[in-house]
Write a structure and sequence with these properties.
Length: about 130
């Protein structure tokens, strides 16, 4: 009985917290809300990508426990690919936002939107590798 009480209390608190902190993208009604929304979406996509990368490396360490040096080489290759991918995102999204004055909010929003899309694609790709 006590377990049900505490579980119910925790769920109620979590629900209240979730309602108290709405997403900056929930009701965008003014252009000043666009940048915080873009930043929030980008941060979420980046977290997904980081989590997928951590999961992939963890799986590699487990699968290559019999040959850790081979696993380390694979992880090193993944790190190199991740670095090059990050440089590609910077370059591509810089091209996409090029015609907008650098430093302007619109430039940041376009760059973040492009980056968010690329991070989401990267997370899906890393999840695909994890499933192989």
């Amino acid at each position: 009985m006590k377990k049900r009480f505490w579980l119910g209390l925790i769920l109620a608190i979590n629900s209240t917290i979730a309602q108290a902190a709405p997403s900056p993208c929930e009701e965008v009604t003014h252009n000043l809300q666009i940048l915080p929304c873009a930043e929030s979406a980008w941060a979420g996509a980046q977290q997904k990508t980081d989590a997928a990368l951590v999961s992939l490396k963890s799986r590699i360490r487990k699968e290559y426990i019999a040959d850790p040096s081979l696993g380390a080489r694979l992880i090193n290759r993944i790190d190199q690919a991740q670095q090059l991918w990050g440089e590609s995102v910077e370059a591509d999204c810089g091209v996409e936002a090029f015609e907008i004055e650098e430093g302007a909010q619109a430039h940041q929003v376009v760059f973040l939107h492009c980056s968010t899309k690329r991070y989401e694609e990267r997370a899906a790709y890393l999840d695909h590798l994890l499933a192989i």
